[in-house]
Task: inverse folding
């Protein structure tokens, strides 16, 4: 069997970088073994990234210059904000050049599944903790937080659905529904359970539709709507009226945390380092704006509106509802917006990079 070199280097990069990231989210993080493994996987990932371009028969200095420039912007943003969100976005997008979307999604799926299963097995045999005992008692399968488990599983499921979007059937969705219920039960993941459930129901009802209904055309701009809504809630909660305290209780204290960070730090172009030990800033829209800055937020806004419009205009029902599910998820969790856990961005990366390669 002939292995496509570009596909190999792309998938090797994804496996290395996502292995490093999964370890950083697990209890192996800040151990000698974990730190060494994270560094080794990251270095190997970067070697595969370099090899992906220098070994190409279509090597172009212009392309390399563009990527290096974007990487430099990402590095500047990382140094200022303390996070590599924009930098990783550039790297993950660039590595998909000349690789088919189905190959990227397949590699992406396994790059999350393999390290996650290994971490889970280590927790099951007692090397690291299986149980989480904090605000709730739940299984965390070796992760630092039990909410990380459904984020990873959802990313794997969506990557599979996007890869097999034309062959999705009732049996597959039934298995995914069982996985949804299991995650809700074992990880006590209420938010994830609700979003998973809505996502699967939408796919059951509309997966065979030839086009996306005009009724939901406004959902192409859902990312912008949720971002504005998040800022509005943070600003309005500052009034501290009785009704807002009631809303705050229903939403598990999230509006209070949003107001706290928004008032204390504000928004800067390149972002800023923030103290995340004060409270949980779970809202991805506000986290992007406050910590990673207006530049990173605008990039994400452009990407999500663009992929939503592409899905709507081309009748990509599975993609369209996958994007909506993630945009809902962003309201309650930050993790899913990272490209390590967001396969819809990888899908878009293949579209964007291949169009650039073809001069479109």
Result:
């Amino acid at each position: 069997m002939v292995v496509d070199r570009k596909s190999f280097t792309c998938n090797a990069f994804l496996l290395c970088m996502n292995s490093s990231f999964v370890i950083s989210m697990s209890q192996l993080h800040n151990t000698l073994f974990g730190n060494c493994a994270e560094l080794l996987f990251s270095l190997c990932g970067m070697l595969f990234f370099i090899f992906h371009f220098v070994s190409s028969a279509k090597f172009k200095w212009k392309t390399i210059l563009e990527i290096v420039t974007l990487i430099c912007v990402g590095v500047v943003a990382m140094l200022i904000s303390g996070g590599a969100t924009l930098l990783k976005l550039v790297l993950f997008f660039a590595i998909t050049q000349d690789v088919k979307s189905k190959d990227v999604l397949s590699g992406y799926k396994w790059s999350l599944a393999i390290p996650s299963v290994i971490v889970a097995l280590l927790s099951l045999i007692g090397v690291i903790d299986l149980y989480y005992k904090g605000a709730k008692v739940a299984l965390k399968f070796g992760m630092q937080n039990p909410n990380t488990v459904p984020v990873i599983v959802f990313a794997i499921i969506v990557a599979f659905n996007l890869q097999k979007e034309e062959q999705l059937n009732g049996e597959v969705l039934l298995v995914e529904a069982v996985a949804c219920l299991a995650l809700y039960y074992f990880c006590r993941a209420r938010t994830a359970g609700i979003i998973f459930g809505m996502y699967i129901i939408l796919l059951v009802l509309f997966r065979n539709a030839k086009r996306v209904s005009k009724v939901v055309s406004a959902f192409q701009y859902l990312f912008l709507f949720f971002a504005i809504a998040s800022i509005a809630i943070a600003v309005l909660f500052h009034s501290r009226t009785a009704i807002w305290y009631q809303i705050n209780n229903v939403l598990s204290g999230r509006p209070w945390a949003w107001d706290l960070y928004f008032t204390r730090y504000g928004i800067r172009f390149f972002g800023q380092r923030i103290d995340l030990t004060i409270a949980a800033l779970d809202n991805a829209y506000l986290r992007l704006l406050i910590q990673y800055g207006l530049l990173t937020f605008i990039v994400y806004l452009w990407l999500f509106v663009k992929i939503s419009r592409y899905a709507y205009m081309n009748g990509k029902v599975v993609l369209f509802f996958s994007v909506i599910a993630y945009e809902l998820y962003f309201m309650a969790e930050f993790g899913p917006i990272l490209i390590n856990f967001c396969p819809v961005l990888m899908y878009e990366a293949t579209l964007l990079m291949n169009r650039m390669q073809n001069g479109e």
In short: The chain has a mean pLDDT of 90.
